[in-house]
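Shapes recur. One chain:

:::
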Amino acid sequence: MNNEELKRILLLANEFKEGDLAVGGTRDDRERAEARRVLGSLRLGEITGTELVEDEATETLARAVDGNLAGELARLTAAELKSILLTADGAVWLRQYRDGLSSEAIAAVVKLMTNDDLSTVARAIFNPLPGAGVTIGSPRHFGSRIQPNSPGDDEEEILFSILEGLACGCGDVIIGLNPASDDLDTIVRLEDLLRRVVERLELPTRYCVLSDIVKQTAARARTQVDVGFQSLAGTSAALRGMVGLDIDEVADLARGFSGLYFETGQGSEVTNQAAAGVDMVTLESRSYGVARYIRRHATSPSDRDEKWMIVNDVAGFIGPEVFRTGDQLLRACLEDTVMAKLHGITMGLDVCATFHMGIEPARLRRLTAEVVEQAAPAYLMAVAGNADPMLGYLTTSFREHPGLRRRVGRQITTAMQNRLTALGVMNDAGELGSGGTDTAELYSAYLKDGGDTRTLEALRDEGTRRLAVLQERGFDLGYGQSADAPEVTARLDAIYANARRALYATLNEGVMHAMAPHRLRVRTRAVDREDYLMHPPSGEHIRDEDAARVAALYPVRRPQVQIVISDGLNADAANENLRTLLPALRRELAGIGCHLGETEIIIDNARVRAGYHVGALLDAEAVVHLIGERPGTGLDMLSAYLTYGRDREGNSRWSSDLDHSNTTAVCGIHPKGKRPEAAAQEIARCVRRMLEERCSGVALGRSLDGARP
């Protein structure tokens, strides 16, 4: 079959989501129904034998399929495969033939299923990890990843988030921290913190700092790294954009870790312009095929079991350009869970929503309960409060997990339940006991195991005081274990309302005048704020009349480094932080001896790529783009995206389509996160190295950390 024809059928057969429009999808129900009819009649051999994308990912996925089993299945139609999976013996059949199913065939059968069909399959298939009793991914298991993020990588904030999660019975799958700073020193420091918590409290769980597998490989030379992490994608271009490596290079690095943790999510390839004309569901299935291949490649022949591996599907993190409604979020969770299970993968979900999607917190909580019941994922996220304090999105709180476990009649792993029972968190039935061990008591146990000689009572009192301080700083900690407590609901509603307001904030002209007296203010092609929020490409290019003004800005001498300021998703971040950051940044950049553009370029309704467009118009060596981060953290945080615009030969590579892997990010800039003064120093250090090394982004990180595959 012609690959363009198959791509078109697979695309149109999807349930509608906005992200597919970017590659030619349709809203027409009848057209999609006809595509599903045609897809159902296709044989698996036709689907598997057609190369959708000519890249290394396709070649790798083909090698991962058992040719003999694929031959046995070749004459089955996609509709017949659906019927087999829906029978009572579907799970038994799958165990025999799974390795003969290609990722594309798995995507095809999922497109033919209703939500009820998907739920039937999801609740029948489980891929448990080895161990005694109830293990991760087994039929009786429902667990969680504690995500203890801190906007400033503050160790006390992280520690108390972990302890609060444990007090709610969370964290049996993994403790996974997203670092605000991605430098090697920070990764090593945070890996050490997580290791101390796990070792001191004797927790039967894994831990991971979610940097990337290249930096983690470098960190292994300086400290113990438990689990290797990498985001994955369904095309080689998308994966290279994330980490600068191909699949086999990632797999080679994966050999060095005893455990692997991968993240995926529908829409990442589309939004990074690396979809190659393929729809989101098929690309997501290919991502699971990549994970399956890496696990096999990274497992030593002498190992009794395959390497420990979990996948997390971050469903809803990108925004309304991928999907906008709760129904679409539910559908994506069902599709992704079934595809992962058909690949033999143990997978959990981050059932989440960005604030610009407009899914209210109460609606997301109801959706989360539906997903747990219908999709039977191995685990969900667990954060302190429903709003992540660093990433700025809505997800599942620690407090929700006990109720979710009761709702579906499943439990955390036997090993973790036994340990939390010994710590006094749970009773013998696996329930949180009334009057059981709380966060402050776990703090005292942690310090005692670290050699603190004070009494438990004194340590507990200290823990209570520290919790109170964190509350005052805006952290959702110490409010108890009730998900419906009035103060908890009121706090979350306030964060949501503030985030929605911040999305529509504008750059304050008074602040811009005071901080950037020599400025050029321009706009992107977005018609208005709504257009900008719903259609990200509209914010990636300077409108034509303003592009001409930017290009004419420096008629004599072009700057070596240009500062760009834009609103992003939260103009208040710039309004609040520029007064401190910009003067310090100018001083620091002057101190490294670069020729800095004397006029700041200020852009309304701008995405990160608008900074690349400025670089192209000015032909500067480097651009420092200060832009508002996603709102919803409780803090209005600024980011700096630093991009070097030359290749090794000195030729310009500027383009609004420049891959984001070429950019270095300094995030979480705020007095309560990464302090603006410290951020200015870090930005200047990065710019100096960019100019010296003549690179930025992934290439600069590998150069600085010495972590080459």
